[in-house]
């Protein structure tokens, strides 16, 4: 006779299983499949990931303009390092005759937001689940910025905003625009009375940390000191408002490549490379609401 565990004990055991293994366990039985998809178990699993010490695993998303996407992982075990490459090619998700062009990818707690010509894909590679969302006819791959976040782990939202610009073909101004999409219902909401005095010049640095989008914004200031021109911005889905987190901790030079990323799962980091010397510097922000940057 098989041993019958209580529901609470099964939930506690599965909440300690790595997310990478939960996809395989869904096919054990119908009760496990339903339990793994519950919001409570997902919250338990993610909270353990945040609270436990850093596991030494780094993961990057590598893409080209076509349908090829790869997840490159660097795992550290004691003093040994191994490289793991996972193929996430989009042609396996939706085989099509016409080519698929990918412009940007945003990662949020295991989900991928893939930005394409006139549609978005919210993709869970582990559970093999996909949600396709239309962008609308006014999509512009250079002016529009996207991010993925959530209010709860069953209420994911997509942020789409456009900084004021001028259409180079028609020489007509493109006004600012902010929209939020609820992934479950696939409905878009335009946020009225929204204005901001910054632009975004590094769209690839948009990321999501614990459900909140972050990116680097730039203010055009005619001063000799440009250290205050670049700043870290965020968007609050609950209040539907932008927030300025902090200025960058270095003198900003628009010729230097910069990138914003997550550090050890719960902090922000900024990378800057000097275009002359090619030297790379990395700063880490230990508390999001305090001006505390540490140079590595």
Automatic annotation (TrEMBL):
F-box domain location, by residue? 5-45
* Highest taxon above the source species: Eukaryota
Q: Which SUPFAM superfamilies match?
A: F-box domain (SSF81383)
Q: Give the signal peptide range.
A: none
Q: What Pfam families does its record include?
A: F-box (PF00646), FBA_1 (PF07734)
Q: What is this protein called?
A: F-box domain-containing protein
Q: Which organism is it from?
A: Eutrema salsugineum
